[in-house]
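2024-03-11 09:14:02 INFO worker-7 job=invfold-0412 stage=load source=structure_tokens
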């Protein structure tokens, strides 16, 4: 009897295995763009031991699925083309992907400012109506966390049209348009962004737990998981009470109070590694040229930690992708909040500093400065056109070798005769003043670490001299270091702004927060 039962079970399992179809991840689909000039992985699943054949152009590769049904082949480097191509994958079944272009593929990622849609930006409606770019292809990843079962496809590829761009990143779109026009090649854009997300949610858990400065982000989310049932009940009760109170307030002619905020324990996208597992890992190892990252707002309260967290995330992506140190552009946070009359120690500024330091110390990274295009009263500035253009300017110069000048970059500081002399790189034809006839937003401090506004003047093609009558023995200078500097006017012949910077290593206001 047992032998008969075993035979039946073996037959059933064999039938299931035989019926297992060759399948591809969502990122491999018709209308995609494949990266030129580097190997192109094609991968998926099939029945264990099934032979899978991949054919593209003149390449034909065969592979046998492993014991878990996984398989992968790597196409040899491809040449860019606007001519639609066909990719065929065949095992027990046959998949045919069509309308494939070859060109440049970029990932755009981050939180709400990367997520922001065209219609939510300045002149966005007109830009959307004109967004007819058949050689720009968009993949808009749905917001998914890794610990929940996916309810549908991660996303689909589509040619850029007014309809397909409607839910796409505005900054990413403008970035892609600039690249296509400059490079004269197809461009593929993969958008993975989630408003309110923190960088630890985008980082693999093993990289967080391995670092003493970051493991608290994982421990915190474990506590949230334990608290979730209780917090869920309490939050539901708070919402019901708010609804009742709101009706009473309306009846009394009073403006209703704001609704209770969603507790962190109920925000899936705040869970460490959750977005990495749900939205980044499923894309790997799809061939990309590089990534552009616009995030940091939600990590403001732990700005010091961001000096470790951002480089760790970048390293993790590169190692997990297995494609070397691909280019990584960092959009630095813009000016935001009320203009303050005196120099301030603001966490927002220290996030910008962490972004600048990361771009200086991590290989193949770059800084996209936006200190002059923010809004005092809106954390989501509406000018995403210039953000996209500056992303493209960085890529065109640092990645594609175009002869472009970007904004000045602080290089070093020297104390001389009661003054501090600053030297800059990337000065182009020389340092310049953009608005007004005097440099603004320079602050200087002595040993007491108290910053006061300083006099600053250009004393050479790449040097600035900074001093203040009230500081006889200066030790440090900061430039545009307030949350919202009034007039950050240091530039060069490019017209692009210099990044905010500091020459000191004084503790920031978030020191020790994990």
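2024-03-11 09:14:09 INFO worker-7 stage=emit residues=514
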């Amino acid at each position: 009897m047992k032998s008969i039962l075993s035979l039946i079970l073996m037959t059933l399992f064999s039938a299931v295995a035989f019926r297992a179809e060759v399948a591809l991840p969502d990122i491999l689909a018709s209308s995609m763009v494949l990266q030129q000039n580097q190997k192109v992985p094609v991968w998926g699943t099939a029945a264990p031991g099934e032979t899978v054949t991949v054919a593209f152009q003149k390449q034909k590769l065969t592979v046998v699925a492993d014991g878990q049904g996984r398989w992968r082949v790597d196409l040899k480097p491809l040449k860019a083309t606007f001519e639609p191509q066909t990719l065929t994958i065949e095992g027990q079944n046959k998949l045919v992907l069509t309308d494939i272009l070859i060109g440049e593929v970029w990932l755009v990622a981050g939180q709400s400012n990367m997520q922001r849609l065209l219609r939510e930006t300045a002149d966005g409606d007109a830009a959307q109506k004109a967004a007819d770019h058949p050689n720009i292809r968009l993949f808009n990843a749905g917001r998914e966390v890794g610990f929940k079962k996916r309810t549908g496809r991660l996303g689909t590829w589509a040619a850029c049209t007014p309809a397909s761009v409607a839910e796409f990143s505005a900054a990413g779109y403008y970035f892609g348009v600039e690249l296509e026009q400059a490079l004269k090649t197809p461009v593929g854009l993969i958008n993975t962004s989630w408003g309110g997300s923190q960088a630890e949610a985008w980082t693999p858990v093993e990289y967080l737990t391995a670092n003493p400065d970051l493991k608290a982000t994982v421990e915190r989310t474990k506590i949230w998981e334990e608290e979730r049932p209780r917090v869920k009940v309490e939050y539901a009760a708070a919402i019901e009470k708010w609804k009742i109170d709101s009706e009473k307030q309306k009846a009394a002619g009073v403006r209703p109070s704001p609704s209770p905020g969603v507790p962190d324990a109920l925000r899936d996208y705040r869970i460490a590694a959750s977005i990495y597992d749900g939205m980044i890992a499923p894309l790997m190892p799809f061939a990309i040229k590089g990534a552009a990252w616009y995030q940091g707002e939600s990590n403001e309260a732990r700005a010091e930690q961001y000096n470790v967290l951002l480089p760790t995330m970048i390293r993790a992506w590169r190692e997990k992708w297995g494609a070397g140190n691909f280019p990584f552009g960092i959009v630095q946070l813009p000016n935001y909040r009320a203009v303050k009359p005196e120099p301030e120690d603001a966490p927002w500024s220290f996030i910008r500093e962490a972004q600048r330091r990361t771009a200086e110390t991590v290989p193949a990274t770059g800084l996209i400065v936006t200190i002059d295009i923010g809004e005092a009263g809106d954390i989501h500035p509406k000018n995403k056109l210039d953000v996209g253009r500056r992303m493209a300017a960085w890529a065109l110069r640092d990645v594609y070798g175009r002869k472009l000048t970007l904004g000045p970059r602080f290089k070093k500081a020297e104390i001389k005769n009661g003054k501090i002399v600053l030297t800059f790189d990337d000065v182009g034809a020389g340092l310049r003043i953009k608005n007004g006839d005097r440099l603004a937003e320079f602050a200087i401090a002595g040993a007491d670490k108290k910053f006061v506004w300083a006099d600053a003047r250009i004393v050479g093609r790449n040097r600035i001299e900074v001093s203040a009558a009230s500081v006889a023995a200066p030790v440090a200078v900061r430039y545009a270091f307030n949350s919202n500097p009034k007039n950050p006017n240091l530039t060069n012949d490019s017209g692009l702004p210099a990044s905010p910077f500091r020459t000191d290593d004084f503790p920031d206001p978030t020191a020790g927060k994990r």
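2024-03-11 09:14:09 INFO worker-7 stage=report msg="The domain at 409-502 is CATH 2.60.40 (Immunoglobulin-like)."
2024-03-11 09:14:10 INFO worker-7 job finished
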